[in-house]
Batch of 2 targets.
Target 1
Amino acid sequence: MAATEPGQLDPVSPRTANLAALLRALRAGPLSRTQLAARCGLTKAAVSGLITELSERGLVRSAGLQGGGNGRPSQLVELNGASACGLALSVEADRFAAVVTNLDGRVVAERTETADVAALGLHRSMDELAFLARQLLLGDQPVGVTVSVPGLVDSAAAVLRFAPTLRWRDAEIADLLAARLGLTVDAIRVDNEANLGAVGEVVAGVGRGVRELFYLSGGTGVGGGLVSGGTILRGARGFAGEVGHITVDPSGEQCPCGRVGCLETKAGLSAVLRGAASPGDPLHDPALGVDGRVGLLKHRVRRGDQRAVAAVSELGVALGIAVSTVVDVLDPDVVVLGGYFAELGEWLVEPVRRELSARPLGHEPACRVEPSPLGTTAPLRGAAHLATERLFADPTLVPVVTSSSIDTAEAPA
Amino acid sequence: MAATEPGQLDPVSPRTANLAALLRALRAGPLSRTQLAARCGLTKAAVSGLITELSERGLVRSAGLQGGGNGRPSQLVELNGASACGLALSVEADRFAAVVTNLDGRVVAERTETADVAALGLHRSMDELAFLARQLLLGDQPVGVTVSVPGLVDSAAAVLRFAPTLRWRDAEIADLLAARLGLTVDAIRVDNEANLGAVGEVVAGVGRGVRELFYLSGGTGVGGGLVSGGTILRGARGFAGEVGHITVDPSGEQCPCGRVGCLETKAGLSAVLRGAASPGDPLHDPALGVDGRVGLLKHRVRRGDQRAVAAVSELGVALGIAVSTVVDVLDPDVVVLGGYFAELGEWLVEPVRRELSARPLGHEPACRVEPSPLGTTAPLRGAAHLATERLFADPTLVPVVTSSSIDTAEAPA
């Protein structure tokens, strides 16, 4: 169910594929060999041999006995969460963030540093990011690294093609970080923040268990991430989901992009703040940061400030049109309003639902609309999930460290 | 490369999967056993055994010798196109159509019958369609049937949920046709005409070899079909690509659907014809049929008729906005203008390309825009392809008929 990217992984041998299938099955919790055999379509003998290998690699361990319904108890096997870790990094206009997670998804360490990333430039930013990562890793070698960036990414090449807020073009993020972290380039994946936000919602947010999801993220720009069939939908060049410049009003404002009436001219944070207050108002004070300005806007809407209420109401109309369009194109199960839209969810979800329920398809709108419960952390959550994903596709990435510490025999069922 | 729907097929045994891989490899033309072994990752001994079975099922045959570059010639094997056939059917508002194709995609028989399908109703329409099919099949049993319908389809259940032009709801097309044609329900696939049009373009039109394609189809309504990663993108309920009611002008006309400024209010055929001529003009004469009215419109644009030119120019603007939106969402390699848009392609392709080249992504627009070379036959071409697809996934659907007529030995390489 978790979003993975099989296309990016090297083909593995049938034995490795079976090791991987067992490891993934154990993600949901401890299981007996008999249960593993049933879930993975393997014989119990094959499972025993494979579990021995996973144990020798340190990836699984015994988890006590399970009382059998009809007789003798079974030995349980569980994931050894601490045996490996993944590193998630994110670059935003005003901050770097890093998270180290266990194999079982638990956060081991995390840190955020504010910075003027555009002013730092690419190379010094990569120095900072690597420094942050080393502080958290404490010498551990991650099985994978995923980097979230705000821009157009060629994910196959692990290159950030263009990030307008950072003014970076063709930034070879994976190469730069691999050199700084002493890792191979193929351990590092680079992805767009909205794509990773969509994955975050699928693994840890309102999209759990969902295979078709649209994540719409509000910030200085407006971005989107798509999950279809349980994997990120990328399109031909990796730019799918770039909804910031879809037309929501052809008689609207000129957008710096060259088009007219783009979603960003109505839903980008600065456009909304301009609508909500005159120049010079504290709502425009960069010193407050994005979170501070959104918090102030929210406070004013609560208080009933007319301009703030009108600006958020217009934002709801624009999001309604944009979301309806994407829903018609993609037919998702869930639409998630992320980034700063999540903060304003109490005023945005209803107008979007209303526009969707005016749908012409002759059926109840089955598509849910929800504010992101993860807020601005969704991309980092998605990145953390994908960072360990490499190991769940190929458990032989970690070496055999000990002879098996696990009982190779199981009490007969 | 061909669009297939593996999700809909039952899992097959490893041997069957290998038979299928060989059969698919032979689609491109005759190959030797050595070549087949290399392409399918099998040993030459395995290939020989599998080819014997395919030959016993009548699906392949010897195709003479190929001069070896470095010595003795090799025996070639080829698809036996005439050994099986697929049936494609289509229902449109004003006609039924049927095509029977060979295993190699060659058309064996085809026929179109005009009819007022809405007036006939569902059951009499299915009688007519089955009658048409039996006339073409001449007693042959197709390996698969694909039915193209103009509406929302639950393709897993093979049910047409809603077809506004036919006024059919929850029509169990596969059940009704299976009973009339003496076939099992699982041999019959029902799909939306725009989805099948997209497949048609991938297998036989401007999308050959393309894995990401958007097919936009103009008719009374406006529909869309998406191919992503080489397969039809369906979304959660099978309604992906339904772009007829995306908003292209929020200050535009009220649409019967309940929304305002939908693409159909600008690009549906009757909207365009209303723009091009006053009531009472022959352009609105239903007796001319869709093709006749579009032909007349085209004639007037060529002649420079002002209203006709203006109407087609407005249509280009609306398509530009809609296509740009879908391109931002999906990032396809190719956009195909199908249905009546293809007929007017010489005036529509340029405005769409112009709007796309105003893209903000900071890269040359790599997305091609092309009129459909298949025109209104694209859905039937896609349906014909998918009708035989079942056999290419499971060659054991046809029984063993003879002992192998093929040489089991090959001249040593």
Target 2
Amino acid sequence: MSEIWLSSLKTDSPQEGFELAILLSRRGVKYTQPDKEVLQKLRPEYANNADSLTAASQVVAINFQTVAAANNYWK
Amino acid sequence: MSEIWLSSLKTDSPQEGFELAILLSRRGVKYTQPDKEVLQKLRPEYANNADSLTAASQVVAINFQTVAAANNYWK
Amino acid sequence: MSEIWLSSLKTDSPQEGFELAILLSRRGVKYTQPDKEVLQKLRPEYANNADSLTAASQVVAINFQTVAAANNYWK
Amino acid sequence: MSEIWLSSLKTDSPQEGFELAILLSRRGVKYTQPDKEVLQKLRPEYANNADSLTAASQVVAINFQTVAAANNYWK
Amino acid sequence: MSEIWLSSLKTDSPQEGFELAILLSRRGVKYTQPDKEVLQKLRPEYANNADSLTAASQVVAINFQTVAAANNYWK
Amino acid sequence: MSEIWLSSLKTDSPQEGFELAILLSRRGVKYTQPDKEVLQKLRPEYANNADSLTAASQVVAINFQTVAAANNYWK
């Protein structure tokens, strides 16, 4: 993967930071399963399952901790 | 999602911070499954399952760590 | 939920801090499932399941990290 | 639970800190299921299951983070 | 394992840091299951399962917290 | 367990720190299930299961956070 997709953890606002946390979470998946078609096929499976959604939200929460710290919590 | 829903991690009290952590947890879900009807349909599934509730509480706990740090623990 | 249940993360001792972590963990559940009767009904289900108890203990551990940091580890 | 079981997070060594983390993990379980007989009965169930043991080790790891920070990593 | 595979947590960019987090996550697996053939055989199993991918992404997120802190968040 | 197995969190390199994190993860299991024969018997069960390996890697990641902090990230 030579494409540049993450050059900084700095964002202008907490909300953009949260969206960066989502990006990080998706990239974590993509490094394991790079095939977009497979990912597309799996989507309905977890997007319609409450526990899968909670698990996805947890990964976002962990990445958001990192992004928030990197931005000194936008203080 | 152009709507502004998170402009600051600062809250007036720990309790409001905890409620913000809940909002963050729900937003983490909503970015993956934006369809409100689907979310509504999934609700009874996890709201009546002990393990699902524990998992939801865990995501809140992780987000609360972030919010608490952002507020210097309301010291 | 207009009731005030969390006005401070400060506690007099680590043990009280641990008990506050338990309260936070339960509140995390309660915001998702506010119906006390349902919660009561679910109790035997997870209180008699080893993995559910471990999961509950994990949420407490995460919340205890927050409470301990807020109290500067009672140093 | 009026018994005092946690008066300090300070320990003399990392190993004692690790053992305190185990105590915290067990207490997290005990607050949810205080009945010793039930806990005894559940023991073989998870002590002979690889995933349950990994989950238990994870709770210890989280609590050890707290204890280690409280002891400034025994530096 | 006498091979040197991790001499520093420092990376030039957040993206390289994320890739190091992925390496750490894989190494965590490899210490438990060093047999490459077995790992190869298990790959399709989790690379085509949404919950397995989320779990993998979560380990990356946790390791990324460590790498990011080690790099002072590339500030 | 009177044996001394953890006298310091300090290591000479990140890699040794990672190996210490693995030791901590295994010890977390061993305190719950001290019987080596049982542990040996459980090994194939999780060493050949992708999700079990991911879970094991997660515990290592959490312990590595602690070890890395204790070593000031080997800066």
